[in-house]
Automatic annotation (TrEMBL), chains A, B, C, D:
Domain Alcohol dehydrogenase-like N-terminal as annotated: residue spans: 29-142
Protein name listed in UniProt: L-iditol 2-dehydrogenase
Gene3D superfamilies per the UniProt record, alphabetical: Medium-chain alcohol dehydrogenases, catalytic domain, NAD(P)-binding Rossmann-like Domain
Cofactor(s) required for function per UniProt: Zn(2+)
Residue ranges of domain Alcohol dehydrogenase-like C-terminal in the record: 184-311
Record's keyword annotation contains tRNA processing: no
Family: Belongs to the zinc-containing alcohol dehydrogenase family.
Length: 354, 354, 354, 354
């Protein structure tokens, strides 16, 4: 039974997450109706809650790392999705503009990533809604054997695959240092390993060091050890082939420049920082050491598709990256926890005990 | 003024092209209404007319190398297309399935390439129609300074770009031999040159040899010279890095195996042949000489987008690949000419003198 | 103590391996003197013993999968190698010709792979010699913690890395079927997995099926199951992205064509076959299915270097690919065993018990 | 007749170039004796003369962009080089270390680029010598139909090819802006065009603007026009795909950041600057705009080999990049001219009138 009114979480101002209600619109020919299971809270979500990225507007019906079950489909969908399928969603995109034709939907020229795409009142994708209707082209099919909160990792994993594509990781050859063992850091680490990289994780916080070790990585305790020295030790003084900055911090940026190999290293600026970090770039050093400083953000359609494939085929295991499950009616508590150096907080949208 | 009835060319049986009429459907929110200017006759079109590819079904409202002007747009298109824009069309695709998400729309799992996608009665894309309505996502914008029949080269050029992607041409380094100087052969030659290849064209027919020379290529007259010997002569006995087979013929296939360099050459099977050709593949030779035999067919969304870009920026010149312009009411004559070893016959859909 | 006379294994005719003696030449400025530890018997070696590849000439002082310890170095070596280092050798190459400059030393224009490069009397690289002198540029440094017979895997591993480079394996994405679980098949399988591929091995022989399972691969018992059906079952009817033919046999070649995915699959002809196999290539099918048939043979300098790195960093484990250790004085017995569907037979050159 | 004493140009202190004499050493088995024709003066050479890069040491028998004719060969060379061949030289490298095995000879671990490799007294490669002896592996063969001063472009062209490899230029697609139309800028421009890029050159100096136009490039007069605005105008407000900084200057670096396209642009730091330039890198901007800042320096063996191929096959024309020919006895004058915003000054080593 699809309720007349759906519930959804939204941010109404800095530090305030609430549950609101609205009606579901009519299902169109090219759309799917999905009963949402979970939506994980992303950095983008809780940094707005913290007041660090308030440019995105209020009220923000955010949330974009979610998964659910198809309960109805429009008449023009073809055989790709059937009622009962588990799905995960992508960012919105028009599919018409030149950027979308290249698959670069994060750059879509017609549809804003967190615009008022589903309401005149609310910004955001309504990820924390109990049900939603979206164009079928914005879903990927997920393996029903995954837990819903694992299936919800398609969007963040897509951005990690974009990073790997930009980095052109050399499988079986590269040694990758990931600085920062938060959710995105360890997701990068897990993917780099699954793609044939040797991975070293550098982190300061005890809990994150512990999870990094449980996931099987070589770990530097950056509170007690000098990360640059340790990387040199781990690599026979050769230095890292690749450094992925999964934190946006000046100190980390400059560490990266010192722990790389003599020539031809790559540094990925995977994370933005608020407040904005610095980086001591000396153009002559970049030139002589042939360094590549590579920015990465968002995902292409292919990245999302590949992310679904990696999760569905269990090529990586994200189970340790889920900190806690909290039901939608406690969404304010969920945001508080997301704000406390935790891994993903998973908001359960159907109130069942998991 | 958009007429109540549109006219369109179609194949009703082997050897028979006719002009039929039908009404235009209603314009939907995600669609464009286009006043078509021209549609060039492709090999797929005239080989059905010849009876060589009749598996595609009758009546066939074919034609897929066309261009026109946007005369109306639906409400959900965004700013990508405006009334008055020149556009060219792509193959149909759902945009929903996994293959479309990878951009591989030629492999679309929901929509058949020449299916009955626009009518219960006719197969085909209605390329030879005076007007048509299509989803906006199936168009690319074209430079108004191009002639319409040049703008219509997006689809064949897209398939050539797919070929180049598969071949991973090494710009500034590779010597490419193209066997067969028909439209698709010279299009491959033009693109290989624009991408930094040295290009040698091998052809038997005087007219095509002449056009190849006028386009500035090094040419082998395969009727009078031995193509294998000539390639060795042109390359200081090194042989070709790449051979593109733009004809589907056993003799050409086996020539290719003999004119390549000693190691690491690539051979592209760009063209199907009717009747089906053979190729003397010795697996041990493929192994020891490290040959790559590469099949290629169709285009990705990115290929189409890039094809539009190349034409729009005039990075290649296709003007010599247009043999003649014939108005729609003489479509049977147009097919007769297309069937006579000519370059593209361009069917003019608005009856104006060009 | 370096003996005045060194001993070495050689093939004097079909089916006959003997131990001969000769003097060591003088060490030159650009050379290393190496006390050999082991040399594994390669397919090339025992197929000559079997009389299948006799074109290589007798007497053949073959063997080229070996490792040892540097005992003296010339004056122009620099700091790359020191006395006491464990090393493994590469094929001979001039380093001067254009192919060598590209790193493609297997294609060297001046030095024949198994020519009379070290003697007027014997062909071959003297891999089964107790000591030898070679140019320093033909060695790579190995991790002393490896067993000598593992360090001897540089050459075969190099050829597998060449294969992977030609295949452009997509890490985290591709499903790879390896047909044939001999030494080279499982080496390909191990590398494909280490580079982020999902690997399925197809094999008929019980012992090899068992070793494949012990190495952790998904395995098809091709004696009891239909390999094509099983691959479809393993891949949800999608088929393999990549098939590596690690046997040179007609039946396997044709299986490969049937177990691949609908579009864009790659088939690697990794192994030559004696007698020469066939393959049912239909050029139209290659074209429409966009198949790549890729030959691969030998290794580049970079491949060898990377192979040493992979072994040294223990990114793959080859221990199960070593069947037995046999001392040099029993080299005829070693060849008999190599000839009986076994994994690598390792010839111990210093007669110690391992 | 090979003279007992050879003459060579060298820098004895800041601002002082002199001609000295020495004997030729004995030819060894792996060496070539070359009668040098010309050596062009590189930036590295004249910036030492200017006192900007004096860390390289005096007396500096520099010069490394040279070509000549083989007059004798050692016994171990094979058939790659014959007496009478025109050749050009590469940087020194050991060929033994891991970097050389990867082809990255600029990173050679045993031999310093401008060390005292040929003399206990002089630094440098003796490029300005009338004759020299070098290992055969350090030469590439050149087309005798080239002028000697064109054949001498192998080394600088190699560094441009390294740059292109790092940039992964997309042929037929990318628009490349080159800032700075000196020798290296226009060499980059010529190669980018030969590899299928659209090229726009930005320059302030009248003479260089004129040469850029004569070479057929789209040109921005940066003294009179705003380069950022002009690039936007040239590209329909899309911005450049790639910017190559062929000058090491803060203003140019920051222009580059403003003239690139919105997402996924690449900026190459091709040139070092003396004094050291700055660049206003904002890590958040690099992240969100997915910019790649790429350092490049030196060449691999493959780059040199490819550079020889490009010149030999006349895929680019460097004739306008040669400013003047001056004989060795006037080497101080040659350096004065090289120091005056000129293109390459070619030092003629055999005193003939060209």
């Amino acid at each position: 039974m699809i309720p007349e009114k759906i519930k959804f979480g939204c941010l109404t101002k800095k530090g305030m997450a609430e549950v609101h209600e609205r009606s579901l619109p009519q299902l169109k020919a090219d759309e799917l109706l999905v009963k949402q299971e979970v939506c994980n809270i992303c950095t983008t979500d809780y940094q707005q809650w913290q007041g660090l990225r308030e440019h995105q507007g209020y009220p923000m019906a955010g949330g974009h790392e979610c998964s659910g079950i198809v309960v109805d489909k429009g008449s023009d969908i073809g055989n790709t999705f059937e009622v009962g399928d588990r799905v995960s969603i992508l960012y919105d995109y028009c599919g018409i503009c030149s950027q979308c034709k290249m698959g670069e939907i994060t750059n879509c020229e017609n549809i804003k990533m967190f615009g008022k795409n589903y309401s005149n009142e609310y910004y955001g994708l309504f990820g924390f809604a109990t049900y939603f209707i979206r164009k079928a082209k914005s879903f990927v099919k997920m393996n029903p054997k995954l837990r819903p909160e694992e299936a919800a990792f398609v969007e963040p994993l897509g951005s990690v695959l974009q990073n790997m594509k930009k980095l052109r990781l050399r499988p079986g050859k590269d040694t990758v240092v990931v600085i920062g063992a938060g959710t995105m850091g360890l997701l990068n680490a897990a993917v780099a390993r699954a793609m044939g990289g040797r991975v070293i994780v550098s982190e300061m916080m005890d809990k994150k060091i512990d999870i990094s070790r449980r996931m099987g990585f070589e770990v530097i305790n950056a509170k007690e050890e000098d990360p640059v020295e340790k990387v040199m030790e781990f690599t026979n003084d050769l230095g890292a082939d690749v450094v992925i900055l999964a934190v946006g911090a000046t100190a980390a940026n400059n560490q990266a420049l010192k722990m790389i190999k003599k020539r031809d290293a790559k540094i990925s600026l995977f994370a933005a920082g608020y407040p904005a970090p610095q980086m001591d770039i000396d153009p002559n050093m970049i030139h002589y050491k042939k360094i590549e400083v590579i920015g990465t953000f968002g995902s292409s359609l292919e990245d999302y598709n590949d992310a679904a494939g990696m999760l569905n085929e269990k090529r990586i295991d994200v189970s340790l990256l889920i900190e806690e499950r909290i039901s939608l009616d406690k969404i304010q508590e969920a945001f508080e926890k997301a704000n406390s150096n935790n891994y993903r907080i998973s908001v359960m949208l159907q109130q069942k005990t998991v």
